């Protein structure tokens, strides 16, 4: 029988006035628990009274928690909010993982105020027992409904970095790493990015060994032990995402060797066959950029000569021979297009790996091939000089707002691309070839010293992103700053990623009260 408001207040008074042994008033507490069966007023009072005396009646702990959960699922949102607000008061001892599990399930709410209340409650119990709270969160990430899994991962990715140092101990961080590895056995592209963000933010991952562990995780996700299927958009998407996550981890002590070798062995030979996961993405330029960004961080390579050969052959494809002459003049319809953006990436990668085998162009390729290569370099360099002059004339005298137009932004970046190529070609024309020059890739932020070269300070994250010819500067080229914010399509990378089954997930939106026990 439901208790009335008067009975609730009376029983509350009995318990509040007891100074010694509350346990002898079990009937009074039971009457308060029965308040959840009453009307809105009774339920609001019960939501406040039940947690207040919860710790004094351990034999009624299950009944009390279940009564509070009834209120958390009430149709009245104000009652739900009140009940959720009080849930952390049940989070003591062995009950905490269960409360964490319940709160994680409640993240599925569509009410913004209620959602914020759940977040606040989770944070409060996290500070009480971080590992116990994480147990509830990861339990739902691994076995909960899809919406709960998604929101629990987002909770961790946004809230962990806000936790105080005394909460995020080494033991807690180790637990996060272990549990996250389990989740990574079956993830979507978006989940993978968020989980890597979680791990990358841990203090223990800021060391060389920590970052190496993260690289190992990415290597597992990237399936670098398998050949790439270039026509499978999911496989290409997986490789792109994994490489992006690995890039910030590479340094002089954490090497990119396995990724660079994989790109040279499986990606470059299939460059023209790559299927883009996003229609508007220039997938060939995208992978060449990634390869260029990784190449400075290569360690010792078992396949260095093989990789240089692959880069050399791919360079030849994008550095055409001069057209045949007819009647002393070049046939206009045969003039090749010079793809400066692609060549910048390939030349830079070749230049970086060439430092490790400086005699490659002298001893590792035939004299005939070297002669052919130099003819191509000379022809490309001539076209390059024409284009550089055109760009400098177009940008001469322009400052401030004039340089901020889309057309001039493209010209500024095009000038950076062509200057980079020019520097690298000059190195290769040395006898013997030199690998001493340094350049900043065109899509990277421009340094002030470089900006001064065109008479003003600027920053640019864009790339020309398209084929340019020596005859005409395109003015309608797409911006390439989308590269930094590229989000792949949702969905599983591949059906073969893991064997996790979602068959035991509840689909009714109800709280599963047994989790975490």
From TrEMBL:
- GO biological process: one example: apoptotic process
Q: Where would you find this protein in the cell?
A: Nucleus
Q: What is its main location?
A: nucleus
One Pfam family hit: API5
Q: Which UniProt keywords apply?
A: Apoptosis, Nucleus, Repeat
Which InterPro entries does the UniProt record give? API5, ARM-like, ARM-type_fold
Q: Which GO terms describe its molecular function?
A: RNA binding
User: Key word Hydrolase present in the record?
Assistant: no
Domain of life per record: Eukaryota
Q: Does the keyword Ribosomal protein apply?
A: no
Transmembrane residue ranges: none
Q: Name one GO cellular component term.
A: nucleus
Residue ranges, annotated region (Disordered): 454-517
- Basic and acidic residues bias locations: 503-517
The family line of this record is: Belongs to the API5 family.
- Output this protein's name: Apoptosis inhibitor 5-like
Q: What organism does the record attribute this protein to?
A: Sinocyclocheilus rhinocerous
Q: Upper taxonomic classification of the species?
A: Eukaryota, Metazoa, Chordata, Craniata, Vertebrata
């Amino acid at each position: 029988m439901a208790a009335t408001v008067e009975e609730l207040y009376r029983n509350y008074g009995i318990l509040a006035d007891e100074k010694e042994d509350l346990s002898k008033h079990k009937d009074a507490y039971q009457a308060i628990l029965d308040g959840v069966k009453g009307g809105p007023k009774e339920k609001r009072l019960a939501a406040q009274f039940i947690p207040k005396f919860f710790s004094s009646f351990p034999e009624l702990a299950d009944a009390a928690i279940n009564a509070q959960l009834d209120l958390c699922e009430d149709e009245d949102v104000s009652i739900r909010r009140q009940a959720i607000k009080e849930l952390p008061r049940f989070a003591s001892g062995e009950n905490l993982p269960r409360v964490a599990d319940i709160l994680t399930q409640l993240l599925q709410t569509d009410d913004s105020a209620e959602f914020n209340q759940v977040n606040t409650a989770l944070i409060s119990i996290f500070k009480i027992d971080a590992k116990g709270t994480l147990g509830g969160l990861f339990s739902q990430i691994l076995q909960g409904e899809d919406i709960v899994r998604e929101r629990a991962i987002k909770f961790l990715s946004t809230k962990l970095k806000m936790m105080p140092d005394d909460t995020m101990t080494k033991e807690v961080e180790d637990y996060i790493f272990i549990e996250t590895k389990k989740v990574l056995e079956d993830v979507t592209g978006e989940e993978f990015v968020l989980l890597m963000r979680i791990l990358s933010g841990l203090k223990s991952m800021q060391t060389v060994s920590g970052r190496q562990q993260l690289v190992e995780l990415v290597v597992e996700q990237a399936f670098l032990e398998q050949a790439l299927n270039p026509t499978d958009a999911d496989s290409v998407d997986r490789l792109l995402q994994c490489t992006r996550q690995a890039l910030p981890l590479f340094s002089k002590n954490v090497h990119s060797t396995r990724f660079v070798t994989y790109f040279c062995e499986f990606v470059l030979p299939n460059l023209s066959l790559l299927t883009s996961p996003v229609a508007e993405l220039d997938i060939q330029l995208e992978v060449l950029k990634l390869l260029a960004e990784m190449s400075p961080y290569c360690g010792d390579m078992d396949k260095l000569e093989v990789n240089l050969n692959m880069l050399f052959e791919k360079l030849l494809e994008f550095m055409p021979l001069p057209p045949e002459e007819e009647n002393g003049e070049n046939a206009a319809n045969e003039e090749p297009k010079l793809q400066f953006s692609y060549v910048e990436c390939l030349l830079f990668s070749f230049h970086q790996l060439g430092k490790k085998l400086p005699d490659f162009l002298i001893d590792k390729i035939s004299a005939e091939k070297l002669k052919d290569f130099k003819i191509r370099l000379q022809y490309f360099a001539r076209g390059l000089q024409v284009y550089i002059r055109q760009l400098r004339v177009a940008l001469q005298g322009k400052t401030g707002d004039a340089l901020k137009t889309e057309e001039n932004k493209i010209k500024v970046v095009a000038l950076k691309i062509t200057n980079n190529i020019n520097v690298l070609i000059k190195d290769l024309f040395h006898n013997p070839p030199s690998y001493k020059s340094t350049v900043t890739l065109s899509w990277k932020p421009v340094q002030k010293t470089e900006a001064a070269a065109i008479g003003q300070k600027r920053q640019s994250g864009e790339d020309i992103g398209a084929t340019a010819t020596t005859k005409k500067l395109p003015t309608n080229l797409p911006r390439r700053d989308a590269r930094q914010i590229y989000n792949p399509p949702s969905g599983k990378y591949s059906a073969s990623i893991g064997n996790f089954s979602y068959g035991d997930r509840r689909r009714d939106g109800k709280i599963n009260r047994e989790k975490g026990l």
